[in-house]
Amino acid sequence: MGRLASAYGQAVAAHRQARQRWTAARALLDRLAGQPVPERTADLVARLARLADALVAPPPGSTDRADPTASAGAPPVVFGGPPPGHVVVSPGGPARGHRPTPSGDGPAAVRIGEASTADGRFPLLLPLGAGRHLAVDGDARDPRVAVLLRVLVLRLLTTAAPGSVRVVGIDPAAWGATFIPLRPLRDAGVLGSVATTEAEIGALLDAAEAHARAGEAELLLVVAASAPGPRELARLAALTHAGPSAGVCVLFAGRAVTTPGQAPPTLGGTTEVRLDERYARVGDPPGYPFSADGTGLPVPVLLDGDPPAAAVQALADRLGAQVRRDTALHLADLLPERRWTGSARGGLTTVVGRCGRTPVSLAFDDATPHWLVGGRTGAGKTVFLLDVLYGLATRYSPAELHLWLLDFKEGVSFTEFVPTDRDPSFLPHARAVGVESDREYGLAVLRELRRELGRRAGLFKRHGVTKLADLPDTEPVPRTVAVIDEFHVLFAGNDRLAREAVDLLEELARKGRSYGVHLVLASQSTSGVEALYGRAESLFGQFALRVALPGGEAVLGPRATVAGPTRIGTALVNTAAGAAGADTLLRFPDAHADARQLARLRYELWDARPDDTGPPEVFRGYATAHLEDEPTPAATRRPAVLVGRTVDVAGSTARFDLDASPGRHLAVVGTSATGAHVLRAAALSLAGQHRPGEAEFVLAALVASADGAADDTAAGLKAAGHPVTQVDAAGLRARVAGLAAGPGERGRTYLVVFGVDAAHAVLAAADPDTYRTGHDDLRALLRAGPGRGVHLLGWWRGLRRLADDLGGSQNRDDVACLVALNVPADDLGLHLGVTDLVWTPRPNRALLVDRHAPRTALIVPFVRPGYHPDEEH
Fold it and tell me: What pTM, to 2 d.p., does this model score?
């Protein structure tokens, strides 16, 4: 009987409490509407439902749209511009006609579900916005919590003007899985990166606190899907006390999931939500209470379901289109109003993009002297680099900034900065530009930069300073920025060239900071490069600034997880050598989006160049070289054969002096038809270095593939006024025998033989009277001929035939100059006696070897105009 009385007493008390709350609700509605409240509960529920509908109804004259976040089966919530929840209900009465947005002067009333009573349901709206937050006791590992967070994010975005709300996420428990259904919002530029590690959460809170201090108009919605560590949790709680002026709204899930023995943090301006097995229990919203005694809403709430994926995509499309229109970014937005007003003494700074609406500037200075840029093919590396280069070139004059630009891939990354036959303009800051460069050209650039370091070191010593900024004004020294796109090509393989490139890059990175020489290395990947094994950390450790484009997160280093950019035109910038906590996600424009504006900018910079500014040295890896483009050589006592252009920074002419030393002859070796073209250029280059009639040329075209080149050579020599004798193999043997015995009739005699190996049988035959072979005479001529003014210019189609004609490898110095075409490196190295020869045969390239110098150089061989070595089969 006692138990029954106790239960009865509890029921009576609960009934009285419910009656008091009902009476309070009726009184509140009476104050709000100025109308009597019906006595029946069913009528009260109906009134609440109508009032909720009125709160989310569109204003007169607007176009109604169904709420895209409504789940299937739920009563529709209507919204229109302005969208749902713009009327704020307060105990003091309705704010008639007042529709604040989440980023405006008041919170928005946002639906979370339906309150359930015995007499029906009505929508439940909560105030959310700047200074008004929400906390749930469970975290997003409970599917209901994850759905609630997504619903709130979507409805807050729906209430706000596009671009006025930015969303960031924290989810250490589920590694960001809570936000996967919202991926379209990230692509739309509304949802930022999701922080999952302690360092990333710390960096996110750094940015949130900076936002709060700045008091920006944009609302920052911080969605914590699970509780972070104690330190970060305290910082998150502190944001809820920042007030409406901070422009921050926190949705915090996992309030009750804390470290054992630790009390949940105190939150400010927060509506508390507790979940039981089926329903949600909602506490009193600060400033907008449901109860008079602080017990919250007296009825349970059924939370709304997850919005369909199509609705998320539709909202993302609408917001994304508007955000792109409102936040469109152009190259002009990165450039200064006035050109060339910056001073480079303390460093270089340029705007590279925007984070939200805030410009992002990066620098080449003591803190970030070198940059490392990564991204997959098509991710926008070239676009980003062009933005940086145009930004620097408009801020600093050519006297303050020099650019060295090197591109290893097949493309046109930097061609717009060099003069062409159709357009004489060029970027006045550019000193050297390489397009489709060879590894050897890249090495030449690094060597030249090292020489520049040496020159600056001497200057610094004379003035007793250690930094460029400390030099006196009377010694202006420009800062140098070297940009190397696809730099990993330099390290292909693990040969001597790759090792030297690593040594040079490491030295430049280490010393460049003080001397004002800065590096930008861009590539698809920085891993798997054999030449960098054991060296990568010491090299890349000098690159404090990292830029990760889509697919290029590896440049940030071995971090546990990196939420890198996914859209073209975005980049994750880190200013601490990849360390977590220093990331900034930015957008950057495509400089070529407005081709006319870009062309005007280039011509503006070109027209403003100082009078003494010449065009840059340009290396075009795809271009052929022609003797006809060379200046006409003057007559000289010591002539030289010209065979091509050296692959170096200056693009110097590849030449071989013909003095009186034994062995000063030329051998072009390889089966490629380019050999005939090189021999033609060598002969014609000599013609201009002698007065007409001073030299005699003996031509022997012994292979059909050389007939055209030989005829062209003969015509050119005759046009220069020199006697030309054309012979066959037998005639060649006779002339070799005569020249081996004594000098020619004129001061200089040149034997020009196309296909020397074709005369092997004739030269090998012995004279029946003297038993002397043609090879004996040839070898005597090779040794003694130069002292008599006789030189051999020959094309051998095989290295073995050359060795046989010389009498074995021990006589290799009898022909001191070789131009090797498609000869394997191992065979060539064996012939030369070189064990670490760096040479990869390829079209339009040859290896020049001067054994007397000694020197080895990659060259672009001279060919006849119109001939393309790449077309050989």
Answer: 0.72
